[in-house]
Design a protein that fits this description.
The chain has about 475 residues and is of the alpha+beta class. It has 17 helices and 17 strands. This is BTB domain-containing protein.
Amino acid sequence: MSRGLSLSIDLQLLFNNPKYSDVTIICAKSVKLHCYRAILAARSEVFDRLLFNGMKESFEQEIKFPEINAQAMKIILEFLYTGDFSNEDLSLKFLVDAYFAADFFQLLNLQDHIINKLEEILSNNSENSEEDILPELLTKAVRDEIPNSDPLADLLVKYITKIPLETIPYGSLSSPAFQFLLIYCAKEKISLANNQYTIFRYIALHAANEVEQEDSDDEFNVFMKTEACLPSLDKFLKKEHVITPKNINDLTSFRTKLSEKLTPMLDYVNIKLINGGILVEIIEPLEIVPTDLIIEAYRYKVKQEMTIREIDDFTWDINVCGPNLDISNDGYTVETPNGLISNERVRASQPIMNIGLYEWDIIIENPSLSDWVGICGEGEVTNFNSTDYYSEVWILGSAGQVSNNGLLIDYGSPPFWEGTKVRVHLNMGKRERKVAFSINGVKYPVVMHWDNIPAKVYPLVSLKYPGKFKIQILKKDSDGLI
């Protein structure tokens, strides 16, 4: 290309070209980059002070930046020369390094440019090829103090929340970075996992890893011994893990330190929502959670049981039902005929419209490949051609997704199998209504995106062959407990 047509392209010819250089920058690992003093000084006040201050740097042919790697420095210099930087070989790590180098050289516009480029890479990274490095980068971004607001840390933590918590290696997040993650999730009302026990377990093992790193006496094996007392939720439900008295006694030598590390982070776990069996069998015996939190959780569970409004009965409404569905004589069971390849819906005959907490179970007696459970409004929810078909339902599917208005959002719950019990938790508040679901006794978070639930709703299911569902209300026993 002929020169003179583009200033930025012409200036690119000067970049790292010994022919036009009068100073050499030496980066980490002694990598040399060739530059021109006048351009650096004109574009950066930091370079101007270094190169034209009358001190020794003004007369030397080399300037050393041993803490800045060559890739980051190339981004800095290319930006100084052309006002931009190339998109070739840009990794998240190099861009983050360049962000901090830009901070050193007081290049605010370049920092903004890097943030935009990082956002572009992360949002288009469908293969998640670099997500493993995000925790390490957040640790670098947060450093030793938790920032109130930082564009880089805010961006990185936003995408870390999309990574399943249990897949983040312990130790990859420093303590300040991990706390920053927890604070961000609390502020944005984001759940790091599908259940509170998984969050508690990760926090406890993170604390154990910290204790182990700080204690020079490796004989304790703090992380390994703590992990032996905290099985994954899947192992607990399948009863594949047994905690012995020896496992619990193994914590004795470091229990106090572990509790001290763990307790401040418990502000970001809702202990009250952890399964009661896990509280009794796993968490309480470890004696690493303050007693008042354990007691508060038990009280909450008793109070919830006592305040849930008892429903007289629920039966399926034969008048608001798909044309091919069969309802049992007692009204509790709905079944699909052989050959029904498309989903049909049925709602309950009794509406819910009073303020209070309501719960009922849907028993999956026979699953299909596409089952849905939830609630609906007053609209034509069984007529596929109606505008109400998608907008007036709030449902959880057997693939672990929730849906309203045709928008599918990953909920993280397991598939429906034969015998699966789906419990619907409906909070009919005066100003807003909220829904959560439990699968076989494990409660999942409230669906925060559903902020449009009306004041009058009905239980609803959607199924196809060979689906067969039974609706079941929760009866209280003679002591008043469910």
